[in-house]
Amino acid sequence: DTAVSQTPKYLVTQMGNDKSIKCEQNLGHDTMYWYKQDSKKFLKIMFSYNNKELIINETVPNRFSPKSPDKAHLNLHINSLELGDSAVYFCASSLIKNSPLHFGNGTRLTVT
Amino acid sequence: GDSVTQMEGPVTLSEEAFLTINCTYTATGYPSLFWYVQYPGEGLQLLLKATKADDKGSNKGFEATYRKETTSFHLEKGSVQVSDSAVYFCALSGETSYDKVIFGPGTSLSVIP
Fold it and tell me: Which of A23, A90, A108, B94 is geometrically suited to a Cys-Cys bond with B2, CB 3.0 to 4.6 A?
């Protein structure tokens, strides 16, 4: 009965490859997010979707493309991976604006 | 734009010591304020929140009071345990930042027996 689940938990790949991370929430929330956490634990928002509509798109390279097939799912596809993309990526969801975020356990991406 | 500043870590305390982690923010209007905790290998979890000035959020022995006059939301606990070892993030959700939660840089806490 995991609330926000991400797959895979670990992802090791080579530079130049394309990879996807999947996220699903069973909380009935309307808004979903992708956050990137660097090696110093700093969290930066990347994208936010509300009812399948993109509402936040921070300054992220266009190699990153989110897709929301329905309001319970938000996937992240990354093209042409670079060393600097190595980080932990967190999916999160919230019920409404200003309500608390519920996070998944993260996907640790390592680009070699 | 909106921002959150936290005291730098790491912080190391002995069990049963008093904990304070300072947090100050910059935002227009009246943001909602949060503390999240991240245990090793896990995602962030909400620890407590406050939505208006002078509100006190509390949970698991932790407390924080929303101080509009000093734009602060300091986290306190009277007696820490080894199990409190984690990274703590102060965060805000502002009136002008639609659905965007802004996080501080995090403060790592280690509690030793």
Answer: B94
- Sign of the Cα torsion B113, B103, B73, B57 reads negative
Please indicate whether, in this complex, the C-beta atoms of B99 and A48 are within 8 angstroms of each other. Answer: yes
The residue assigned the tokens 């309307």 is: A30
pLDDT tens for B22-36 read 999 998 888 999 999
pLDDT tens-digit readout, A17-61: 999 999 999 999 989 999 999 999 999 999 998 888 888 888 889
Gap between the Cα atoms of B64 and B54, Å rounded: 10
Whether A48 and B100 lie within 8 Å, measured CB to CB: yes
Q: Is B7 on the interface with A (CB under 8 A)?
A: no
Q: Which residue has the tokens 């090696």?
A: A39
Contact B43 A92 (CB under 8 A): yes
Q: Residue B68 carries which DSSP code?
A: T
CA dist B20 and B35 (Å) reads: 13
Maximum Cα–Cα distance for chain B, whole Å?
Answer: 44
* Alpha-carbon span A42 to B38, nearest angstrom: 12
d(CA B10, CA A27): 34
* Pair of tokens at residue B69: 């006059």
Contact B99 A92 (CB under 8 A): no
Specify the pairing of strand A4-7 against strand A19-25.
antiparallel
- Chosen for mutation from B99, B102, B109 (greatest number of chain A CBs closer than 10 Å) is B99
